[in-house]
Predict the structure.
Amino acid sequence: MDPLKKVKLSLFILIALISGGTLGYAVIEDWSFFEALYMTTITLATVGYSEVHSLSYQGRIFTIFLIFFGVGTIAYTIGSMIQFMVEGQLYQFLGRKKVYNKIRRLKDHYVICGYGRIGRSICRDFAAKPLPFVVVESNPARISQLSEDGYLYIEGDATKDEVLEEAGIREAKGLITVVTNDASNVFIVLTARGMNPKLYILARASEDSAEVKLKRAGANKVISPYTIGAHRMAQAILRPSVVDFIDIATGRSNLELQLEEIPVKSNSSLVGKDLLQSGIRKDLGLIIVGIKQGGEIIFNPAATTVIEAGHILIALGEYPEIKKLEAIAAT
């Protein structure tokens, strides 16, 4: 039986026993409620302090049965409560230890600071990819939600070095800070950049003035959800079909069509071939809408464009074929 249910059951039986004992003494000995409750309490507690009044023959028989059932009930109740506390704490301790071990083994992962509405959306998309990540959050309510969602997390203040250290910031590939306070975001970026100079940092800015400060602190890219949201709403009116297409192409829930970026490894069979020779369009039915090299992006590349190691192919097509191209680009 579940430990919590055992505790509830034992407490219910104990309360019923106290009520029955009190009622029994009141009826058999004709005592007041308080006298009957007092006698029941000292009997169940087995302290043997003193009787309220001399017991009748019927009262002594009733006391024998009350002691017999009461001792067992109290022992069961105490045992259930100890089991609940010990097992609960032990489970929590072992569970957190297991989580910390998983976090320590992470490499090239992402640290997400904040589990508000934006943080939750990012986590859902990363989990769908899937992409390794760990969340840093200090709000108890959001910690409970993180535990229910099953994501790896560290409970603490992301502005502190030791908390980011626990999240594996030195082994991380990137950090995304989406807490609601711009000052906290600036401090998180500054701290993370000092601990890992190679880290890619994406930061949220609530105010326009915070963008400059965040970039100065070390953020590679700064995004304002309000600006993006306003632009998206405007485009939904001005270019509804385009917005619908982008939603379909980038939405994880849609498995028929995906827009994905695929890095080309040095040992890939694609290296040295142009787009026509690669067979990406002919064999996989994918459209390469762009190729990123360094900081430059070639949109709608020609069929004669040669694929090189380090290129990032921006491909549009069906999800299974995207996965095939990812495998080819990696080997």
The chain has a mean pLDDT of 87. The first strand starts at residue 110 and ends at 113. Residues 240-330 form a domain with the Alpha-Beta Plaits fold (CATH 3.30.70.1450). Residues 125 and 252 are 7 Å apart (CA to CA).
